Amino acid sequence: MTTSGTTGNTQQTALDGPIREYICELLRANLAAEEAREGEIRRLEETGHRIVNGGQTGMDSWEITDWRSGALIEAGTNGLDGYDAATARLDPTGMWFHIDHVGEGIDELPVSSFGLPDSLAEALREWLSLLSTPDKDVAAVTGWSAEEIQRHRVDI
Prior knowledge:
The chain is an alpha+beta fold.
């Protein structure tokens, strides 16, 4: 059987059926979630919001950085109280969004398991998310190009 990725490339695959279909569906859902998250970031920035990153860096220390540039905005101690005080002082109008909260809920897009047992579906999801799983291995299962896999695996 042949399969096609989102670019229309068609290749023969070593695996056929629900395992391949499930992995392809996970990849498509991941790309859709990433595109939705990027859209939310653009919308927030276009309306004057700043995307920040940071948090606790030690037992009592913390930092706040600009997500886009990585520039340090503020760092300090005094735990969560110090962090909250700095945030209130530096962002009194509430225009900052922490990157961890941008697009909350997007990652929970429903994906059919194509009848696979839950434990196998979870193992395949974990395999796909591992940095040690090469794109070429995923490509061998899906029939997509390694480049297409890489594009779909962003932040998986």
